[in-house]
């Protein structure tokens, strides 16, 4: 969230996830507790024995050692899935020191390798995930069928086992009421549209996750190329919509941005839904030069830092919903104030 990448004015992040299972072990949904522990030990040994050293430094974390709050924070940071957070049998995660790589064990599948990059770097994320996959394949016997490819718990992942996605900030397409037409076209070319936290989640803060639906019948490179081509077109549509807003409705856009900035800068209570929308407005203002002293990266950070679990961890206290709303407002005011001090008073 702190780093920048290509096309980061529209594409917040790029992610590739690979699903794999071991041939001679029951898939997680059918495994006993002891079998899940055996899988955990076999896969974490890849890190403990140094096979991942060429990739980077990884910490192995057992989910059984974490509090519910710690697990919630990992979910909010997109480092583990909600499904893994709720898994009590042999769940583990291997995290790279910069948290760009998350390797989940005993989630829906035995192994899920996730690589997360800032901006529009889907090909780079795939290259890294593929390299890590090779390291595991050197020592693990994957469940693989010559005709069907990699075998997975969910049939929609069978084949390549790859899910590639980009998280996109599309406020101008929403404001110009083009978003439904664009997203409808996206689904017709075999891609899925989800919210901030994946399947079943709401598109808060004008953030949309675009990902492949087809994993069988295409190569990994074809899947990546298809997603890249469609996402590039969405980037162009969003930028055109932003230009149109400035040309045709500049006063209204500036008013919306500055109202949200003013509320975020002074509010004493802020729920998560309102925070997401107003942070989206301010980030749009930063990208359009309306608020030049605000960096988009701070808006990205706040999207994570204002989530319920992260707030409670930051302030080291368990909070009621109202207490979280107050602390959220405090944190946002502090962050925006630091931006004003760094960039000088807003003109």
TrEMBL record:
Residues 10-241 form the Phosphagen kinase C-terminal domain. Gene3D superfamilies: Glutamine synthetase/guanido kinase, catalytic domain. One of its GO terms (molecular function) is ATP binding. Keywords: Allosteric enzyme, ATP-binding, Kinase, Nucleotide-binding, Transferase. Belongs to the ATP:guanido phosphotransferase family. NCBIfam families: PRK01059.1-4. This is Protein-arginine kinase. It comes from Paenibacillus oryzae.
């Amino acid at each position: 969230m702190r780093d920048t990448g290509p096309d980061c004015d529209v594409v917040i992040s790029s992610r590739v996830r690979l699903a794999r299972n071991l041939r001679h072990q029951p898939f997680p949904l059918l495994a006993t507790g002891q079998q899940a522990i055996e899988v955990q030990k076999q896969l974490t040994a890849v890190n403990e024995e140094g096979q991942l050293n060429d990739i980077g430094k990884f910490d192995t974390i057992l989910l059984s050692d974490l509090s519910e709050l710690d697990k919630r924070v990992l979910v909010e940071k997109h480092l583990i899935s909600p499904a893994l957070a709720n898994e009590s049998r042999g769940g583990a995660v291997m995290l790279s020191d910069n948290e760009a790589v998350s390797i989940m064990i005993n989630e829906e599948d035995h192994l899920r390798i996730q690589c997360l990059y800032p901006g529009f770097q889907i090909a780079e994320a795939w290259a890294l995930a593929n390299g890590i996959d090779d390291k595991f394949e050197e020592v693990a016997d994957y469940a693989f069928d010559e005709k069907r490819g990699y075998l997975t718990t969910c049939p929609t992942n069978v084949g390549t086992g790859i899910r590639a996605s980009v998280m996109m900030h599309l406020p101008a397409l929403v404001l110009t009421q083009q978003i439904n037409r664009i997203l409808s076209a996206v689904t017709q070319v075999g891609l899925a549209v989800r919210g901030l936290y994946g399947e079943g989640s709401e598109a808060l803060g004008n953030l949309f996750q675009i990902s492949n639906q087809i994993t069988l019948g295409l190569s990994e490179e074809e899947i990546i190329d298809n997603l890249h081509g469609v996402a590039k077109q969405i980037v162009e549509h969003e930028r055109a919509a932003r230009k149109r807003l400035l040309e045709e409705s500049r006063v209204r856009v500036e008013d919306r941005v500055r109202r949200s900035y003013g509320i975020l800068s002074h509010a004493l209570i802020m729920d998560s839904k309102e925070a997401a929308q107003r942070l989206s407005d301010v980030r749009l203002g930063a990208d359009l030069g309306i608020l030049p002293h605000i960096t988009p990266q701070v808006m990205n950070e706040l999207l994570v830092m204002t989530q319920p679990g992260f707030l409670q961890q930051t302030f080291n206290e368990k909070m009621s919903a109202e207490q979280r709303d107050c602390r959220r407002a405090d944190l946002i005011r502090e962050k925006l104030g630091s931006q004003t001090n760094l960039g000088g008073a807003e003109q």
